[in-house]
Write a structure and sequence with these properties.
Elements lengths: L1 H20 L3 H4 L8 H15 L9 H16 L1 H19 L7 H9 L16 E7 L1 H6 L1 E12 L14 E3 L8 E9 L2 E8 L8 E3 L11 E12 L7 E5 L14 E7 L7 E3 L2 E9 H6 L1 E6 L5 E6 L8 E4 L15 E8 L6 H10 L3 H8 L1
Parallel strand pairs: 1-9, 11-15
Antiparallel strand pairs: 2-7, 3-6, 4-5, 8-9, 10-11, 12-13, 14-15
Helix pairs in contact: 3-4, 4-5, 4-6
Length: 374
């Protein structure tokens, strides 16, 4: 009886722990509990774009988007994260005291600022790095993830962007007394002076000077760094489509890092597939006999599947065959564009006398044939 009672209490205890724990926000953002603030931002940036209802029409995408936003809200705020780590989601909800839930779409808009170049705060930001980026047309057709690297400046990991060997090496400027400005007098008229205020030449207006510079960055505050990133190439992505990597530009102690913008274009290969919006263009070479007598061929598409083309009659040089629904995928839509096959007829460089005679006979008109018989 006692054992049965203890077992029941143990089960109830486990249930209570589960309820108090609530959802695992770290798992929702695909992070571990030691994730940094930057890691949390990157995870939210990647997942919120992936599951945003405007881009992802799959069932359950909107619910996933809301859950991702709730996890980001909890973990991006240091105080909320501390409460969550100690008491779980239920403890966090109790702390907030039933406050009105934030609109997840407002959080998304605030995070991305409505697109690069449109910020809603007054924080000084670094320049936006814009780069042309070429991918294989096959990747745009099928969708793919492409790894790439960016060389940029990041804050020195030794001095954390101060430029000093240690915190104790950052001193008050002796010239301006820490004000960042130098006060002087300038004579306007004999016996009349005006006070002047200029930026302190020693500290450049910062009010602080460095007694001993950081040996790791030589006082530059930043170091060279090669960042590794992954570009999500979406099916049917338009030529010149811009993908923004928020806050991944050059870092500085003077500003918040700007964005990296990739303008994605498909690489052009001589003699290969060509793209125009949702249409795909291919040039197929056929022989004279095929042009005259008809043919059937298979073309290997960008994803490897075979497209059968056949033309039983005469094919004129430059003739274009339209094959429906074999073009590029419609970006953020359904279906495909069309495929256009242009035919190039190759003539022989040399023909034998026997072939010449046969061709003359074959192409002889009725009038010429009667004249020949006479």
């Amino acid at each position: 009886m006692a054992r049965s009672l203890l077992s029941g209490l143990f089960v109830l205890l486990l249930c209570a722990i589960y309820v108090l724990g609530g959802r695992n926000f770290y798992k929702i953002l695909d992070l571990d509990r030691s994730a940094s603030e930057a890691d949390i931002k990157k995870a939210y940036k990647r997942l919120s774009r992936k599951f945003h209802p405007d881009r992802n029409k799959a069932e359950g995408a909107e619910a996933k988007f809301v859950e991702i936003t709730q996890a980001y809200e909890a973990l991006s705020d240091p105080q909320k994260r501390q409460i969550y780590d100690r008491h779980g989601e239920e403890g966090l909800q109790a702390h907030e005291g039933g406050q009105h839930a934030t609109n997840p779409f407002d959080v998304f808009s605030s995070f991305f600022g409505g697109g690069h170049g449109q910020r809603h705060d007054n924080v000084r930001r670094g320049p936006t790095m814009v780069s042309e980026f070429e991918v294989n047309l096959a990747d745009v057709y099928t969708g793919n993830q492409v790894d790439f690297m960016i060389k940029k400046k990041i804050l020195c990991d030794h001095c954390r962007g101060s430029g000093a060997h240690s915190d104790g090496d950052i001193k008050q400027c002796p010239t301006c007394g820490g004000s960042g400005v130098k006060i002087g007098k300038q004579q306007i008229f004999p016996g009349m002076y005006a006070n002047t205020q200029t930026t302190c030449p020693q500290c450049s207006g910062k009010g602080k000077v460095i007694a001993r510079v950081c040996k790791h960055c030589n006082g530059e505050k930043v170091i060279d760094h090669t960042g590794h990133y992954t570009l999500d190439v979406e099916k049917g992505m338009p030529e010149g489509h811009e993908v923004v990597f928020e806050g991944e530009g050059d870092q500085s102690a003077e500003w918040e890092a700007g964005d990296v913008v990739l303008r994605v274009r498909s690489s052009k290969v001589a003699g290969g597939w060509r793209r125009k919006e949702s249409g795909l263009y291919w040039r197929e070479t056929i022989s004279v006999s095929e042009a005259l007598l008809g043919f059937e061929r298979n073309i290997t598409h960008l994803d490897g599947h075979q497209v059968t083309i056949n033309h039983p009659g005469v094919t004129q040089p430059g003739h274009v065959m339209v094959i429906k629904e074999e073009g590029m995928p419609i970006f953020h839509g359904h279906g495909h564009g069309d495929m256009f096959v242009e035919f190039n007829v190759v003539l022989p460089t040399v023909i034998s006398e026997d072939m010449r005679t046969k061709l003359q006979t074959a192409f002889m008109t009725d009038k010429q044939r009667v004249k020949e018989e006479l």
